[in-house]
Write a structure and sequence with these properties.
By secondary structure, this protein is of the alpha/beta class. It folds into two domains: 62 residues, 2,3-Dihydroxybiphenyl 1,2-Dioxygenase, domain 1; 68 residues, Roll (2,3-Dihydroxybiphenyl 1,2-Dioxygenase, domain 1), CATH 3.10.180. The protein is 22% helix and 31% strand. It has three helices and seven strands; from the N terminus they run βαββαβαβββ. The strands form two sheets. A four-stranded mixed beta sheet has the order 4-7-6-5, covered by helices on one side. Strands 1-3-2 form a three-stranded mixed beta sheet. Strand 2 and strand 3 form a beta hairpin. The relative contact order is 0.17.
């Protein structure tokens, strides 16, 4: 098996509000989007926004508020300055700041915000995991 993550789907309470946030933050909806689901290209990964109830029904589980979901998404930046810009843009688009960007113990720079549905996003610059020109991250022992 080839380890792969191709699509992340976020269950959202209000698809229109969520689309407005992500698009104000700079994400561009794909033409594959439909009234009930939005798709966004993110390098080789796709982010999808879909109604919580529809996602729960599709998975065959009960739609229950989860509180802290024990998962976060991350935007890794090329520099501290880019991290600052991305974080500020998210807040301007409607994100709720949770933890301001700051120098962290592992030698990088990191902060958190929540999107309108409470999904956690980390914005970080990590000098140990540099990005290529296209913004792809490769771990030191991975194959490119």
């Amino acid at each position: 098996m080839q380890p792969r993550l191709t699509l992340v789907t976020l269950g959202v309470a209000d698809l229109a509000k969520s689309r407005a946030f992500y698009e104000a933050w700079g994400w561009k909806a794909s033409s594959a989007s439909q009234p009930s689901v939005a798709f966004y290209q993110a390098n080789g990964l796709v982010l999808a926004l879909w109604g919580r109830a529809d996602l729960a029904e599709d998975a065959g589980v009960e739609d229950r508020p989860t509180g802290f979901s024990a998962i976060s998404l991350a935007y890794n930046a090329h520099s501290k300055e880019e991290a600052d810009e991305v974080y500020a843009l998210a807040v301007k688009a409607g994100a709720r700041p949770l933890k301001p960007l700051h120098d962290v113990f592992w030698g990088g720079y990191s902060g958190y915000f929540a999107d309108p549905n409470g999904h956690l996003w980390e914005v970080a610059w990590n000098p140990s995991f540099p990005l290529d020109e296209q913004g792809h991250m490769f771990l030191p022992d991975s194959q490119t």
